Structure formats: structure tokens, C-alpha cells
Give the backbone structure.
Amino acid sequence: MIEAALEALMDTEGVDALLLVEKDGFVVFQHGEIEANMQRTEALRWLALAEMVEDGAMTTVVMERGYVLLKPTEKRLLIVVCQRTVNLGAVRKRLKEFQWSKQDSAT
């Protein structure tokens, strides 16, 4: 069900990886290439950053090789790793259109 809900994001050109992470760092869903040993460490860093901003606010982090978008849900954090060439507007629009509360309670 998570995969179907995130299909539009996964199909977006320039999106390299998606992680849906519990507040304790447990990875619920992964799509794309992310090293296994890096998953939890990076996820915990992104969770800490997401907690510093206003509740529910989407955060965009500019990295050397691309972008990381953080979108908190009621129970989880969606982490979207993108290339430099991605259309950030398209990714943000898809994140805003997603029905977060229904997906969070269904999984």
C-alpha cells in the first residue's frame, strides 16, 4: 500500500531514493539505492533536523550532489533524495498532494 501511494514520487525524474522512517529511526519503506549501513545513521540525522522546524513543515536541504526533502507525517518522516537536475516544484507538489494521515494510519 505504501508503494502504491508513493508511486508518483518514485516515478519522478531525478528522484533517486525514498525512505519512510518511524520517529525512532526504523525504516518502514525504502525505494532506490541507499547503502544499508548508512540508512539508519542518515535517517536519525534527518529526523533530528525535521524536529527543529515547525510541525508539518517541509524542509529542503541543499547537498553537494543534489537535494534532500524532509516531509513529516503524523507518525513518520518521508525522506526524498534527489539529483541536482530534479524539478523541485514537481516533487514538492506531489508531496503536498499526498494524503498523509490515511497512509500513516493504514500501515
Remarks:
- Strands lie at 15-22, 27-32, 59-62, 66-72, 76-83.
- Residues 102-107 have pLDDT under 50 and may be disordered.
- The first helix runs from residue 2 to 5.
- The CA atoms of residues 38 and 72 lie 20 Å apart.
